[in-house]
Amino acid sequence: MGLVKIGQWALNTSKGVAVSSRCALAMLKVYVLARPVTWSGIVIHIVLKRHIHRDSQDTFAPCNPALRIAVLMTTLSRNASLIADRLLSLPCGSRRMAGIAGPPGSGKSTLAEVVVDEINRREPGMAALFPMDGFHFDDSVLRERGRLANKGAIDTFDVHGLRHMLERLKRNEDDVVAVPVFDRSIEIARAGGRLIARQTGIIVCEGNYLLMRQSPWDRLKPIFDLTVLVEVDISELRRRLRARWEGLGLDEAAILQKLDGNDLPNGIAIMEGSTEPDIRVINN
Predict the structure, then answer these.
(1) pLDDT for position 7
(2) Largest pairwise CA distance in the chain
């Protein structure tokens, strides 16, 4: 399975626009042989998977999840618009759920927020944000388990509580659902920190481990209708995380412990251990 670098054709097909088979094959031939194509500041990588099918009018039409898209994050708003397009194009008979995953410092939270803002700009009240961080174990629990220094690692979250909440939100049976929200200023998850109403048609969940292949995290991906993985080079990730901890006033020893003892190993595990997403965003 190779990455084929395509410009506007990728944008069109990602929105479900059928392209004639002869034209599509010709474009594939040209772009496979050519250098990477930049279109309006974006390089789009399309991974053609086995589900591309031919319809009755001899066109190749993408069927979900036929296309896997990787976007070089050059413009945040443009990438958010692309994801919003995909979500709004999904069948609207039931609540649509998106999962945006990535390492700490990758930009996934910012991307998720802008996606929600973009959807609500087009259709006010349609989307809500649901961060995974509200399912951190409390510090007292982590202290008892000897894992407080590793807060943020995959075993420091209530994965089963998160899964049940995602399933409840997906069913959309209640008039309103209260979800926990992590308060970073005091390092505590606030129960009922955000309300999601039944009329909310799209929920964007963001968090580090949403797409992990290991059990029991692998039970999360089937809940989502669209998945996104945000990736970043390790050197750039180190720079961003160092700046984050310096901004919080940590000394050099504490910063190194955070970076090499927790954050970077977690980030590498996320990028290596996540399953194939529908959209892959490279945010360097």
Answers:
(1) 34
(2) 65
Q: How far is CA 123 from the centre of its chain?
A: 21
Residue type, 68: R
Residues paired with 97 in a beta bridge: 203
Contact 277, 228 (CB under 8 A): yes
- Phi, psi for residue 98 in degrees, rounded to 5: -120, 145
> Residue 240, class by beta-carbon neighbours within 10 Å (0-12 exposed, 13-18 middle, 19+ buried)?
middle
Name the pTM for this structure: 0.74
pLDDT-derived band of residue 196, with 50, 70 and 90 as boundaries? Answer: very high
Which residue blocks in 152-219 are alpha helix, DSSP H?
Answer: 159-171
| Number of neighbouring beta carbons within 10 Å of residue 201 | 19
Count Cβ atoms below 10 Å from residue 130 Cβ, excluding itself: 26
271 close to 213: Cβ distance less than 8 angstroms: no
* Cα 83 → chain centroid: 10
- The β-bridge partners of 67 are 48
The SS3 call for residue 189 is strand
Of 71-75, 155-159, 237-241, 258-262, the range with the highest mean pLDDT is 155-159
Say if CB 35 and CB 52 are below 8 A apart: no
Residue 212, exposed/middle/buried by CB under 10 A (0-12, 13-18, 19+)? buried
Sequence-separated (6 or more) residues with CB below 8 Å from residue 30: none
